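Appendix B, Record 12. Input sequence as logged:
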Amino acid sequence: ASMLFHDGMGFGRKAEVFGYTTIVLSLLLVFFGIRSYRDNIGHGRITFARAFAVGISITLISCLCYVVTWEVIYLNFMHDFVDKYSAYVITQARASGASAAVIQAKVEQMKKFKEMYQNPLFNVMMTFIEPFPVGLGITLISALVLKKKEQVEPVRTPLAASS
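Logged structural output:
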């Protein structure tokens, strides 16, 4: 969703907030997925371990979808992403009053990043680690909140008849 507004937002704080807000909203499905599993499959009960397993599965699937979507967008519509990002980083360094040496170091860093980003494995890993920590956090919180152990009812023994 955020890619529709990318050119208008750029790479600043507003874009980061919007991007991570959409990630958090999409990963709220983890909470609802665990709750649905607990209520429908677990008959109202779920351990932390099972809740975590369900949540992390949803997170991994969500992250995989995120990566595939980004790769399609990047390879077909935004080939210049790294160039625009590099220009933004260098402009920010200049605007902050950085020295020529610092700016030159940023230029070299962005050249290396562009080279590394052309490696599909690096590209996929960088894309995956963007939403995964958020999903892991939501999974942990959801598993803690939603866990319900089976309640053991006390054994009732008949009272001995008094004579």
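The chain is about 75% helix and 0% strand.
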